[in-house]
Amino acid sequence: MAQSQEMAIEATIHAYATTKYVQYLIIAGYAGVVCDYLHTLPDELRFMWPSPFSLPKVLFFSLRYYMLAHGVLVIYQVVSTGHSPEVCKAGFIRITVSSLVVVSISEGSTMHLLDSGSGSYFRS
Hints:
Helices cover 85% and strands 0% of the residues. With 124 residues, it is mostly helical. The chain starts with a helix and ends in a 6-residue tail after the last helix.
């Protein structure tokens, strides 16, 4: 019995360490998103802001700025500790819905680009 408890403790410690590594990767990934945003901001200001209002422009800005908000939600959920299971589940559901929104906007943007590029990609 003592051996199984010892194995369970070791497994818990290993899982905790793995979770910490994943948290570090999430934060590093978000730092990459912020760096990319800052790096491409001058081009965005020069090309996107003065262009006429259009569906690609709406999709671009929706995705670009929603990714920043989504990253904040994810980091808050990953870094915060000491919550009840109900609070953790609610945060997980928020991140899941947010991820679905980001993927939907991305797919809509891609479909629009494919449709406008070929003229009949989705009409055939």
